[in-house]
Amino acid sequence: MELKPTESELEILQIMWNKDQCTVRDVHEELEKTKDSGYTTTLKLMQIMHDKGLVERDTTAKTHLYRALITREQAQNTALDKIISTVFKGSSSQLIMQVLSNKQSSKEELDMIKDYLTKLEKNK
What we know:
Blueprint: H1 7-19, E1 21-22, H2 24-32, H3 39-52, E2 55-58, E3 65-68, H4 72-86, H5 92-102, H6 107-122
Antiparallel strand pairs: 1-3, 2-3
């Protein structure tokens, strides 16, 4: 099954990736730093995420602990695949050119990109 977190779920996952295990209260307090969000909304989202298999819930204690079951890399790959297929009609080269033209890259970043492309060419 392919896991496709929503934007709100990704915000929660970002918090969970940084904290490992956390309660609904932990997540809610972090979310409140950047947006107006109700506790019950956070609770409901985390319950949905549990049902979808994005997080696991430890119910052995009074306060339930949640942990992400999807890694940051898996979420990035899912989101990127969706963007490439829908926005760029399957063209990864168009995505790369758009990214490089929209954001100024440092010399170090450009060198890393060049090195990566060189390695890809050698492996083909």
